[in-house]
Amino acid sequence: MNDTNTELAITPADIVAAIKSATVEVFATMLNMQLEAGPMLTEKSVAAAPASGVVSLVGLAGSWAGTGSIACTGAFACKMASSFLLAEYDAMNDDVLDAVGEISNMIVGNVKTILEEKVGQMGLSTPTVIFGRNFQTRSSRNHEWIVVPFRMSDEHMFVQLSLAPNRDGERSTLRAGFQMPQVINF
Known about the structure:
CATH architecture: 3-Layer(aba) Sandwich
CATH superfamily: CheC-like
Order of helices and strands: HEEEEHHEEEE
Strand content: 25-35%
CATH topology: Chemotaxis protein chec
Number of domains: 1
Low-confidence stretches: 1-7, 45-50, 170-186
Radius of gyration: 16 Å
Helix content: 25-40%
Number of strands: 8
Oligomer: single chain
Shape: globular
């Protein structure tokens, strides 16, 4: 990677490929679950109706900045946590929310690693996990979200990413060995 190259860029196809690869890998290796990826959507093509369930958001910062997220139903979050933590969960609790946060951290972290080859080093924020009924999430910036739906049986999960060149136009000052943030309990 050439840090002096300011013309580094990524395409929506690069982001979709990174999301699909990272998500399938995390689910296969960490949860022993197989997902089927659907076609890419954009935030504008996804209905903006209030949703219910779980959303986990992870920020990205560096020469490119943005947010990655996963969204699913509470029932699917319980399935993920059960497989990840090797215990049975049938209702939302702190363990389920922590597991969703850690899974989103792994997925977005793997996407970040894939994309860093093209856009330079980025850091991750601590995941923020939201659970409830009748809520909406949106970005205050005008960047479009790329959404990749995944399906497992009758359950659906959406992995989304909004990424753009950093407004400051500065290269990342992150150092090698950047420490991974810890998951906060909600």
